[in-house]
Amino acid sequence: MKRKAVIMDENNMKRAVARITYEILERNKGTQDLCVIGIFSRGVALARRISDKISELENEKIPCGALDITAFRDDRKTVSDADRTNIDFDVNNKNVVIVDDVFYTGRTTRAAIDAIMERGRPQSVQLAVLIDRGHRELPIRPDYVGKNLPTSREECVKVSVSETDGSDSVAIYSAQEE
Length: 178
Known about the structure:
Elements: E1 2-8, H1 10-27, E2 34-39, H2 42-58, E3 64-67, E4 95-103, H3 107-117, E5 124-132, E6 144-148, E7 155-160, H4 162-165, E8 169-174
Helix pairs in contact: 1-2
């Protein structure tokens, strides 16, 4: 793969997370019954950042979890005992904000909704993504978007977060060698 362009740097990502956080607080009228759940792997780091920003703004800690959707995917039917999910709070009657790095076809989000619904019945389920690249295959769309990034199917969007990759950035790659 060949990197075509860096779309977001550390400062752009920080601003996008802050904007998403403000939008979440505004739509939910504060933090009551609010929780965030990040999808492994980079969605977890972004969810923690949103949770931390909410805590900073509202002086209130909200529940933050990590969701492994592997068992709920429709494209991989592998059985694994290594479920990394860590949701140590009740999702019943909560406003759950699912957080992911890149929204593409909607299949990851569908799997995440299935996984959350297996744990209870939330009051609402909302979706926050850093990048929306289009190409939906399911009638799902994010409620909160850091950046809309129209791409071709031959391109790849890579989000790097300092927690796992050592730095923050979003880059677009061409999948084919040129």
